[in-house]
Write a structure and sequence with these properties.
Layout: H1 2-19, E1 25-28, E2 35-44, E3 47-57, E4 60-61, E5 70-77, E6 82-89, E7 94-103, E8 106-113, E9 118-126
Antiparallel strand pairs: 1-2, 1-9, 2-3, 3-4, 3-5, 5-6, 6-7, 7-8, 8-9
Length: 128
């Protein structure tokens, strides 16, 4: 009986994880000072990481020094469709405690300090 209950618990947990919108994909960041980027979020070990693959100023692609930088690291599911990990802000080259929530074609990504009391957020749009 314990085996059946344990198997049911694992099946329920797996179903909940599959029900959450996936973070993996190609995302367009929110414009910041007229510039935005495409970030590819892929599995990296047991977590997800996001790397800048294209950068734009206005409508034109340009060669930003941030190309190739990993700006999302160690994002792991945190229950309820959310993720937690680390976020690099290229503007100040600092790493913040990060959290993300995905809903359909959008992702709200936040970088926080002071134990999560002060956060800055962006809304990214899924491209693929």
């Amino acid at each position: 009986m314990k085996t059946v209950a344990l198997a049911a618990a694992f099946a329920l947990a797996a179903t909940a994880a599959l029900a959450a919108d996936p973070i993996e994909g190609l995302w367009q960041t929110q414009a910041d000072e007229g510039a935005f980027a495409f970030v590819a979020v892929k599995p990296c070990g047991p977590a997800f990481c996001g790397t800048i693959v294209k950068t734009f100023k206005g409508k034109d692609e340009y060669q930003s020094p941030n190309l190739g930088k990993q700006i999302v690291t160690g994002m792991t599911p945190d229950g309820g469709g959310g993720y937690k990990g680390k976020v690099l802000r290229p503007a100040d080259n600092k790493v913040y405690n990060g959290k993300a929530s995905v809903s359909g074609g959008t992702m709200k990504l936040s970088g926080c300090v002071a134990g999560g009391l002060i956060c800055k957020s962006q809304t990214w749009t899924r491209l693929k």
